[in-house]
Amino acid sequence: MTAQQDSAKDDSLPVEHIPVLTEPLLERILLPTDGVMVDATVGHGGHSRLFGRMLGPEGYLLGLDVDQNSIQRAYLNLSDLACRVELVRENFAGMNEVLSRHNIDKVDFILADLGFCSGQLDDCDRGLSFQKPQLLDMRLDDRLKTTAADLVNGLSQTELADVIYEFGQDRASRRIARFIVHQRSQKKLTTTTELAMLICRAVRQTLHPGRIHPATRTFQAWRIAVKRELESLDKLLAEAPARL
Length: 244
Known about the structure:
By secondary structure, the chain is α/β, with parallel strands linked by helices. Helix content is 45%, strand content 8%.
């Protein structure tokens, strides 16, 4: 760890993070001890810790994430790895540029685990969850200007329906969009619970234990739209092969 990394640590931050699909990945990936790994969505460092253990002192692990809080947690989780670790606050779409700045031409392994972790879902400042009242934000990167509220209250009815259907695969997208436009003509939607309740009314569903919440797909759509996740993924997939 570098001095810059040490200064970013906050011992008050929780460090537990359980990565997914670890066994299938570990069965297929074997890194040389002097290898170079890129974790394009380092999060709290769960996957990086697993694969970073394969790297020795000559190895190098580069982690990217847009969430500064996640980077701080990752520093704690990766502090005992033998390899050199550098974490950069950057969207995975910018991986190519980061590698160039670090004078790295080729890497052995690139990992991207899309989405968000449960800790981010519980963070009331992000507005990712409809389980309790939160501002309609949904940005993991607070440097972005556009929030979910901006989209919900600013897009046309057709654009709303397109986002909900394309990114959420919700068959009630047009009806939900119509309800949103009607509601915001009276009062702008500003909280997650307001939007979730409106969606329930639009699809005429009540909540039942064990069933998916009616707002789940629409909230997924707004999270993807705010992060511009699919656009970023297209760029990563186009550029990554040349680095391997």
